[in-house]
Amino acid sequence: MSNNFADRLITLIEEKKNPSVVGLDPAIESLPASIIEKYKLPAHGKENIFQAAAEAVLEFNKAIIDSVCDIVPAVKLQAAYYEELGAEGIAAFKETASYAKAKGIITIGDVKRNDIGNTCKAYSNAYLGKAEIFGTKVQVFDFDAVTINSYLGREGVEPFLEDCSAYGKGVFILVKTSNPGSEEFQGLTTDKGKNYFVMGQLVAEWGRGLKGKSGYNCIGAVVGATYPQEAAILRQSMRETLFLVPGYGAQGGSADDIADCFNADGLGALVNSSRGIIFAYKKHKDEKNYSRYAREASLVMKEDISKALIKKGIYRW
Predict the structure, then answer these.
(1) Does residue 152 come out as left (phi exceeding 0), alpha (psi in the -120 to 50 range) or beta?
(2) pLDDT of 45
(3) Which of 38, 40, 94, 112 is catalytic?
(4) If pLDDT is split at 50, 70 and 90, which confidence band does 40 have?
(5) What is the mean pLDDT of the segment spanning 233-251?
(6) Rounded to an integer, what distance in angstroms lies between the CA atom of residue 235 and that of residue 169?
(7) Strand, helix or coil at 179?
(8) For residue 101, what pLDDT is reported?
(9) Residue 180 carries which DSSP code?
(10) Mean pLDDT score, 237-258
(11) What DSSP state is assigned to residue 249?
């Protein structure tokens, strides 16, 4: 298989006929009651509440991964839900990613990191490349891709670009995010156009030279499902860029809203759903079968996207 991130992702999307990603955002208060009861103190028998919580998260994540790994090409881990559990949560973050990779699916670390100089390089070393410790280069988290914020310009992106090239990794850069408040800055008009559009053109430029045999490059863009008109504008000028599309489902974005994130070939976008998948059991009030309902929700999402693309005249699968 190609070492280019975009090629690996496109291959899995085509093999599974599914351009969706499951977001592993395991908010502790939303975990099934059986898991909470199993691990909460003092029932768990440990004094470290962070360790107990991290173990609960890990059990939940592994069950979700087991239930969807044959039907989805990727999972996305939102770092915040792990960081709030301290060092033990970070360990669960790393182990979850390793477990997903062992199941043959792409891992995306939703970390939104950014800085300049050596600090930025350290972030990239941690998540994509290798850290040099006592003269030895070692992998730390080893995600296939991460999300980054490029507010600091090319200096805050360059180390990630270098590691994408060296290690066959990918990045998704914030361009038009799904939250309502994104309009406060991303929607402002400059002499070059809207800020989100300007950022999109920079992302396309940064990706040149990192294109794989699939026709897509490994420098992608985060483009929210809740802004379909903006997504359509971006797609017109970013044909070779992969879009990571949050906002589908729980945040209000529909399958019709994300259709314009795809190219005419039916590729180019990876649509994320987090709460709508991993906590689907809540709709059925059957927490014992939470992983089964996650799988069912994933299949419904797959079909939903397929129907939206067909409606648009795209017959990929």
Answers:
(1) alpha
(2) 67
(3) 112
(4) confident
(5) 92
(6) 22
(7) coil
(8) 97
(9) G
(10) 89
(11) S
